[in-house]
Every structure is written in C-alpha cells, then in structure tokens.
Design goal:
single chain, 152 residues, alpha+beta, STM4215-like, six-stranded mixed sheet, two-stranded antiparallel sheet, 2 helices, DUF3168 domain-containing protein
C-alpha cells in the first residue's frame, strides 16, 4: 500500500488555511511554486511551508489492519534581508501554529481519515532549525519530522 498521497493530503487539509498574525501563509505540496506571491511577516520575512520528504516502512501488523510507519517532513521557510535582525522568531512563531494545527493536544491529532486510511498515531520525531545566507539574504528553515502510524 502506498499511503504517500493520502498522508500529504491529510497534512495539507489540517494546515490550510494557515493564518499567522492575520496573514495567510501558503502551504505547498512537495515543491515551492515560484509564480506564487509569498507574503511577508514582520514586514521583511517572506514565509511559506512545504510538505516534503516522505518515507514508509511496514509497521508491526495485527489481525485487524495492515499498518505502516510513515514519516513526513514539513519545512517552514522564512527569508529576509540579512541586515534585518529578525532571527528565528518568525520561523518559530509559524512553527508553533503549525504544530498546534497538527497536534491540538499531546494526545490528539488533526489528520482526517480518508481513502480507506486511518491515522492511528502522529508523533513529532524531530524539530530543527537550518540557517543559510547568500547575497544579502538570510533564510531560516524550521524542519519538523512527524512519524505517523497509518492503518488500512
């Protein structure tokens, strides 16, 4: 069973609309669309989210369902002029909203079951920050990897 599309759709549905400080932040599936206008937060920080990088392995099976362990990566990207001292605060603000939308509480998640798939468990495996700088622009990405137990 290939759950990739169903998993990405569930995350996309849970995340959109993604509104931060009254600004709707675009969420892209796999690839950034360079033709889309990217909104700015804190006057300078162009911000968007990409659903990317998935992996699937067979999980521990039971008599009721076929089960897979699937990881999915979310990348929250902020770009701003290097001479503006924005730092990680915009990426972290967006990350907080994203994480709350995916897991409203420590024991619940917001993924909607569909196409014969049910999302049994959603756990944050990793959250890290990546800094890049080139040509007077600083890019800060907040990378979050979720592990999902998916039943069919």
């Amino acid at each position: 069973m290939d759950v990739s599309e169903a998993l990405r759709r569930a995350y996309f549905t849970a995340l959109t609309p993604l509104v931060v400080d009254g600004v709707e932040i675009p969420v892209f599936d796999e690839f950034f669309n360079p033709n889309e206008t990217i909104p700015k937060l804190n006057t300078w920080a162009s911000t968007y989210v990409v659903i990317q990088d998935q992996q699937e392995i067979e999980g521990v099976q039971n008599f009721c369902n076929y089960r897979q362990n699937c990881s999915l990566t979310l990348r929250i990207v902020t770009k701003f002029p290097t001479n503006q001292s924005i730092g990680k605060k915009v990426a972290e603000k967006v990350s907080n909203i994203v994480q709350t939308k995916i897991k409203p509480t420590g024991k619940t998640h917001a993924l909607i079951n569909a196409n014969g798939y049910s999302f049994q468990r959603v756990n944050k495996e990793l959250s890290r920050t990546i800094f890049e700088e080139a040509n007077g622009t600083t890019a800060i990405s907040k990378v979050i990897i979720y592990n999902n137990i998916v039943n069919q």
